[in-house]
């Protein structure tokens, strides 16, 4: 029987920490954001609108694009729009253009529910793409309306516990298995963890991680709490070094990860760094410590892969979201996740005959298509997506990423690793 090591909602926890440590930057959600935090976008390109039929496929986009939970994911709406523009430029889906209707929660739970109700009841969207850490506030409403969520924030519990949420990559119930497997694959014999001090969820994750590590034969020998505003992490680095920790898992935001690696390097301590792949970005390849030995599980194909599907994504982003890939911080796994979510929608829509033969696109058609997908990889972008009607859809497989001497690599190539049954 497979044992799930469920971690807390790192997406919400770490995004919130980021807002405490940094100034939350808002602009990416939409230039037309109103005073209530809602916005709309047609999602169509001027060159394709006239060539497509009526009855657009409306997708609701719910985003914490501002406020305390705003994070690196604020670029996701633009990436998702780039996917929609690409689809529409190619004739849409079954002759229907894709139209994105966006809402910004401003990180307010009350807004999140109201915004989703508006998207479904007034804008008549047939699906939601979830770029929010507040999805538990609207999950019950969507179930009552039979409207599915197709990606994106798989760090949230509904993506592995709610049958209406369809992930496009590894879900968080398998995070610890991925962290441990990546560390062992890099040669670690012991592991330590530094976790955020700003939220109780970070502390609550220590015990299950310790159990997972013990069961795997990679003992957790050192843990310490760290604050995002601390001037130095030297004490934690020295303590980990003295405890002979060969791999160090840092459960915190990117700025903290970078500072820890820098401080540890100054002490002559160079462990294998292990991170959740959702947090990686291009800038790590030039950062002291991290660039030398970094590994971890990635929920979707890493952004630096050179597969045909990633090449096609890059071309679309360069056309419809120019400048993103030149931004070392913002071109990250969050961005890839937005694109993969769009590809999942396309695949499911075609499988379910969404709007085929001139019919009106419906949620039911889309759900039929989603539940027909078995071990779907979206041309190698995602790990073994399998959905079954009426059941939750955890995805316990991942890609392994690595950074060594400033060079990104795929230790297992494009092959995914999956959590195995516990003895």
Structural summary, described in words:
It is built from 13 helices and 13 strands. It has 423 residues and is an alpha/beta fold. The chain has two domains: 249 residues, 3-Layer(aba) Sandwich (Rossmann fold), CATH 3.40.50.2300; 150 residues, Response regulator (Rossmann fold). The strands form two sheets. Strands 6, 7, 8, 9, 10, 11, 12 and 13 form an eight-stranded mixed β-sheet that branches. Strands 2-1-3-4-5 form a five-stranded parallel β-sheet. The longest helix is centred in the C-terminal third of the chain and has 19 residues. The protein is globular. The N and C termini lie close together (7 Å). The N terminus is likely disordered.
Which architecture of the largest domain per CATH?
A: 3-Layer(aba) Sandwich
Terminal-residue CA separation: 7 Å
Mean pLDDT: 87
Number of domains: 2
Helix content: 25-40%
Topology, number of strands: 13
Uncertain spans: 1-51
CATH class of the largest domain: Alpha Beta
What composes the largest sheet? 8 strands, mixed
| Helix and strand sequence | HEHEHEHEHEHEHHEHEHEEHHHEEE
Question: How would the blueprint of this fold be written?
Answer:
Layout lengths: L9 H12 L31 E11 L12 H14 L6 E9 L4 H13 L5 E5 L7 H7 L3 E4 L5 H4 L3 E2 L8 H11 L5 E6 L3 H5 L1 H11 L3 E7 L7 H9 L4 E5 L2 H13 L5 E3 L18 E6 L9 H13 L12 H19 L11 H9 L25 E8 L2 E3 L7 E2 L5
Helix pairs in contact: 2-11, 2-12, 9-10, 12-13
């Amino acid at each position: 029987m497979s044992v799930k090591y469920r971690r807390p909602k790192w997406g919400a926890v770490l995004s919130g920490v980021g807002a405490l440590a940094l100034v939350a930057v808002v602009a990416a959600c939409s230039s037309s954001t109103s005073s209530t935090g809602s916005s709309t976008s047609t999602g169509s390109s001027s060159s394709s609108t006239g060539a497509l039929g009526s009855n657009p496929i409306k997708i609701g986009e719910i985003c914490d694009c501002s406020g305390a939970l705003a994070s690196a994911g604020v670029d996701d709406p633009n990436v998702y729009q780039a996917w929609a523009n690409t689809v529409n430029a190619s004739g849409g889906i079954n002759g229907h253009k894709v139209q994105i209707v966006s809402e910004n929660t401003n990180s307010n739970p009350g807004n999140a529910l109201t915004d989703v109700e508006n998207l479904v009841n007034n804008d008549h969207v047939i699906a939601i793409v979830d770029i929010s850490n507040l999805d538990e506030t609207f999950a019950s409403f969507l179930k009552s309306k039979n409207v599915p969520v197709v990606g994106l924030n798989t760090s949230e519990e509904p993506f592995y516990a709610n049958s209406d949420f369809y992930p496009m990559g590894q879900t968080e119930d398998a995070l610890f298995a991925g962290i441990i497997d990546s560390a062992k694959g890099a040669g670690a014999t012991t592991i330590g963890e530094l976790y955020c001090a700003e939220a109780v969820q970070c502390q609550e994750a220590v015990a299950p991680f310790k159990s997972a590590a013990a069961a795997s034969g990679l003992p957790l020998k050192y843990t310490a709490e760290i604050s995002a505003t601390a001037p130095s992490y030297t004490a934690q680095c020295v303590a980990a070094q003295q405890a002979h920790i060969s791999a160090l898992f840092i459960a915190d935001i990117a700025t903290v990860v970078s500072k820890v690696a820098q401080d540890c390097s100054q002490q002559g301590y160079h462990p294998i760094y292990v991170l959740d792949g959702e947090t990686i970005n291009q800038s790590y390849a030039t950062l002291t410590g991290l660039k030398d030995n970094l590994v971890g599980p990635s929920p979707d194909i890493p952004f630096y892969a050179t597969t045909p599907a990633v090449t096609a994504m890059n071309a679309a982003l360069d056309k419809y979201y120019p400048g993103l890939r030149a931004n070392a911080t913002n071109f990250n796994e969050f961005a890839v996740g937005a694109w993969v979510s769009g590809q999942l929608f396309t695949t499911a829509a075609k499988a379910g005959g969404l709007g085929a033969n001139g019919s009106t696109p419906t949620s039911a058609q889309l759900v039929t298509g989603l539940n027909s997908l078995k071990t779907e990889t979206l041309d190698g972008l995602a790990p073994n997506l399998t959905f079954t009607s009426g059941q939750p859809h955890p995805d316990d497989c991942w890609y392994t990423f690595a950074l060594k001497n400033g060079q990104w690599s795929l230790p297992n190539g494009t092959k995914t690793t999956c959590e195995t049954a516990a003895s």
